[in-house]
Amino acid sequence: MKKLTYIFAGFIGVYVLMNIISLQGVVYTHTKEMNQYSEYRSKYARPVNEWEKPNIDNGIYYEEMQALPKTARDTKENPYTEAKMLLGKKLFFEPKLSKSGQIACASCHNPELAFGDSVRTSFGHDRQRGKRNAPNIMMSGFFDELFWDGRAKGLESQALMPIVNPIEMAHELVAMQNYIAKTQEYYPLFLLAFGVSESQYEILRIQSKDEAVRRKEFDRILLDLLKADRQNKNLDSILQSQALTKEQILAARKLITQENIAKAIATYERSIVPKNTRFNRFLNGDYKALSNQEIYGLHIFRTKGRCMNCHYGVALSDGKFHNIGLSFYGRKLEDLGRYEVTKDEKDLGAFKTPSLIAVSKSAPYMHNGIFPTLQGVIHMYNAGFPTQTIRQTSKAVPKTSELIQRLKLNKEEMEALEAFLLTL
C-alpha cells in the first residue's frame, strides 16, 4: 500500500512539475514577445499625427490612416436618410430583383462574410460562374469608381448593374421595377424615403400640424424602426398597421422608379461601415487593443512592407488601378481588368486596389479569388509577384506596376504583418 502511495505521489509530483514548466514557457513566451516588440509600442501607442511618416515612393500622394467614420458618407445628389437606408436594405436582400427570383444582392455580398461570398468566383443566374471574386463592399461609399475594373461611376450607377448582368441576376429593369410597384409592402418605405412631408406624416399617423412637433415625432418613429431592424423584427408589420389610402398607394407607385431604387440601394451600401474593429479601437486611443506583435506588423505595413503606397486613408485603399502581375495574359484565366473599360494600353491587367477593412473575413483574395489565405497573399507580395516572361510581340502587353518589388521580409516580419491585417 505504501508503495502504491509513493508511486501515486510521484505521478502527482511529475504532473505538477510539468504544469509549472508549461506555465513558465507561456510566461517566457509572453515576456519575450513583450520585450521583443516593446520599442514599436512606444512609437505607435499615441495619436496618429505623432507617428513617424510611412515609407512612400516618390510621386505617390497618400493620406494617413484614419479611424472609421461614425456616420455614413453623404452626397449632394443623394443625401443620406435613415428611411432611404431601410428601404435600400430591404431591396438589397430582395431575391425578386433577379429574373429567377432566387438571387439577391446579398447572395454574393453576405454580411457574415464581410459582404463577400467566400468562393473564388461567384455563381449567378442558372448557376453560371463569373470570372471575378465578389468584392467586400464595406467602405464602398468611399470609392468614386466601383467594381474591380471601375466601370461604375458611383454607387447609384453601380446599384443596378448586377441586376441586368446576364451572368449575375439577368433581369430587365422594367420587369424588376414592375414587380416592386405591385408589391404593397414596399409602398410605406418608398413614401417614407422619397415622399413629400405630408405623405410621410400620414403614413406614420402623425396628427399634429406643428411642423417642429411633426418632425420630432417623425424622427422618433424612424428611430424605433431602426431599432426593430437591428433586432431583425418585421418592419412591414410595423408600417402596415394602418391601411394606405388610395391616394397614398398612387403616390407610392409614382415614387417606385429605377432611379429611386438605385438611390435607396446606394444609400444602404454607404451605411456598410464596421464599427468595432480592434485597429479602429487602437486608432481611437485604446492602445491595449493590439498586441506588441500586431503593432510590429503595423510598423512593417508602413515601412518595409511598402503597403501604404496603395493602402492608405480611411478605407485603406488609394482607389486606383494597378497591374500587380495577375492578368494571366495569354492563358486560360486571362483577365485584362481596367483595360476592358478604358481600352487604354496602360490599363492592361490593372485592377482596383481593394479596401483592407475586414480583410480577415473576406477570403479568398484578389480579383479572381486565387489566394485562399492572407498568408499566401503576403508570400506572393514578398516574392514580388514573379510572372511568366511575356514575349514582346506588340505594344499591347500587360506591364506589372513598378510599385511591385521584392520585399525580402523574413518569417517573423511576415507573421507580424499577417497578425496586424487580422485586426483591421
Automatic annotation (TrEMBL):
Cofactor note: Binds 2 heme groups.
Keyword annotations from UniProtKB, A to Z: Heme, Iron, Membrane, Metal-binding, Oxidoreductase, Periplasm, Peroxidase, Signal, Transmembrane, Transmembrane helix
Residue sites binding heme c 1 per the record: 105, 108-109, 125
Annotated localization: Periplasm
First-listed, main subcellular location of the protein, grouped into a coarse class: periplasm
UniProt GO molecular function: cytochrome-c peroxidase activity; electron transfer activity; heme binding; metal ion binding
Transmembrane annotation, as ranges: 6-28
The keyword Transmembrane is assigned to this record: yes
Post-translational modification remark: Binds 2 heme groups per subunit.
InterPro entries: Cyt_c-like_dom, Cyt_c-like_dom_sf, Cytochrome_c_Peroxidase/MauG, Di-haem_cyt_c_peroxidsae, MauG/Cytc_peroxidase
Positions with a binding annotation for heme c 2: 307, 310-311
Coiled-coil ranges from the UniProt annotation: none
Cofactor names: heme
Chain ranges of the Cytochrome c domain: 83-184
Gene3D superfamilies in UniProt: Cytochrome c-like domain (1.10.760.10)
Cellular component aspect of the GO annotation: periplasmic space
Origin: domain of life: Bacteria
Keyword Metal-binding (UniProt): yes
Protein name according to UniProt: Cytochrome-c peroxidase
Originating species: Helicobacter trogontum
